[in-house]
Specification:
The structure is a homodimer. Chain A is of the alpha/beta class. In chain A, 35% of the residues lie in helices and 26% in strands. Chain A has 11 helices and 13 strands. In chain A, the strands form 2 sheets. A 9-stranded mixed sheet of chain A has the order 5-4-1-8-9-10-11-12-13, sandwiched between helices. The first copy, chain A, has a 4-stranded mixed sheet with strand order 3-2-6-7. Chains A and B meet through helix 7, strand 13, helix 9 and helix 11 of A and helix 7, strand 13, helix 9 and helix 11 of B.
Chain lengths: 301, 301
């Protein structure tokens, strides 16, 4: 059940009330791929620059990730992001961002990836997402992420993309921006009218909401006391969800809710340490144990 | 399994983006009692003034509520509240409040109520809650609600109360105010150190969190598109929860989570119409149908 993800890889510097991490591995694609790999092998399409340090490469080899689509581009620099979490870890400020290679042309999709059945178009310019979308005509499920920047500045292209994907994943604030609706159930329904068969609204510590042609479902976050670094929580959620879907092939509403539970639990581990550190010392048995605990917590029948 | 609630009964005027309701029935105790009565008979202790209009009395008789403790006090006026919901229905402003009878002495607890096994001390001055607490020495479970006003101004009395109750129900903003902790799991643990065996943190549209000596559990709200009037959502949640506990007598962590699910679902009906209008045309079969839907939605095992 081949799963492919396209997105960013970056060098992050993170300031948080819990500490600081300098020049660590980050970016939507690597968080997504690492999380998804606990359920399914992942094919990665992403680019870094010639400055990408060898010591940040280890995680690429620690997970079941196909690196044929990872380009180290000569003459380019890696995407860099510096962010600061405030006392309320739900709020963060971007202190600096250098797009670098992300502002250049997309890395090519290896020929061997063209038969991918499950495609995740992580957040990038919707023009790039459309171009990637066109390369996976045989895909069973194509899901996209997006952000406020594109909703505000590339609305027409984004609407074009929405007509061509099966699912959309976005934050609650982005759902409001896209639809003008504060109620995420109503916002989700409006997005369905734009094309996708389902929408997942991510609410951070408050969990996630699925709005599907067959109804709506909400899941809470796993109750977490040890939040060290929320970076990548949304990407690991998406990765766990898509990895689970690729593994089980169930895109029904009930199947997606189970996949969201997998995403919820792997994200709850990710935030326990900086960067990908917690994912690196995690195994499927530990995940399954917490998934069992999560399912038991939600057993209200 | 006798359940008693003490709290306010008021005449509310509500402005909302969805409409306006003038001089309708409100107050924590009646919302709580009506919701709880779907699971268990409820004994009510509350006072209204001589101005209380006959046309607002019907709901008292529409539910299984013992009115022996409802005092109509001559020479006093009923509590009145006027509030306005903003575009984001999570925010509300109090436009005016007249405490009236709420600022006077508490109504007496009928002798016949003294054997109540389940006691809910709805939000009022902690001095009054302590006085009521002392009248139910034989209770199996005593749960209190509180608010920012008492946390800020009557801290010592509130801490005294916390040493004498089994559970506390409060909003997330109140949990932060009480403990200085933004993470509701950590805030809940700090509250446990103050005395109660469990804490329920209400998060409105984001559901509720239980922090218990045996662990923590989160439940989402029922995904609702038709929010007309959020007034009483927290009180009906508490009522459904306590009614369920009084019915089944299960105060274990798993029992409380099931009770919270009952509260979640009855609250999701309450917000569909102004005042108690939706509860008045609701029956247990309709509640059970949605509870089944809610449990199925949360079945991620």
């Amino acid at each position: 059940m081949s799963l492919i993800v396209t997105g960013s890889i970056g060098i992050d510097t993170i300031h948080a009330p819990t500490g600081r991490a300098d020049a660590v591995l980050g970016g939507s694609a690597i968080y997504f791929a690492a999380a998804a790999s606990f359920w399914s092998p992942v094919r990665l399409v992403a680019a870094v620059g010639e400055d990408f340090p060898a010591e940040l490469e280890a995680p690429f080899h620690a997970f079941d990730i196909d690196l044929a689509g990872l380009e180290k581009r000569e003459g380019s620099q890696t995407f860099r992001w510096t962010g600061k979490y405030l006392e309320d870890m739900n709020d963060r400020e971007t202190l600096s961002v250098e797009l670098n290679v992300l502002a250049e042309e997309l890395p090519p999709v290896p020929e061997a990836y063209r038969d991918s059945r499950f495609v995740f178009l992580a957040n990038t310019h919707p023009g790039g997402q459309l171009e990637l979308r066109s390369q996976f005509g045989r895909a069973e499920l194509v899901v996209a992420d997006t952000m406020d920047l594109w909703i505000e500045n590339e609305r027409a292209l984004l609407e074009d993309l929405l007509r061509q994907v099966d699912g959309l994943v976005l934050n609650d604030s982005e759902a409001l921006l896209l639809t003008g609706e504060r109620n995420p159930v109503i916002a989700g329904r409006k997005i369905l009218e734009m094309g996708p068969g389902f929408v997942v609204v991510k609410k951070g510590e408050h969990g996630a909401l699925l709005v599907h042609r067959d109804g709506a479902a909400a899941l809470p976050a796993f109750p977490a006391a040890d939040v060290v670094d929320p970076t990548g929580a949304g990407d690991t959620f998406g990765g766990g969800m898509m990895g689970h879907v690729a593994k089980h092939g169930d895109t029904s509403m009930a199947g997606l809710v189970k996949a969201m539970a997998a995403g919820t639990v792997v994200a709850s581990f990710n935030i326990e340490k900086f960067s990908l550190d917690r994912l690196l010392d995690l195994d499927r048995a530990t995940i399954d144990q917490r998934l069992k605990q999560y399912a038991a917590m939600l057993n209200v029948a």
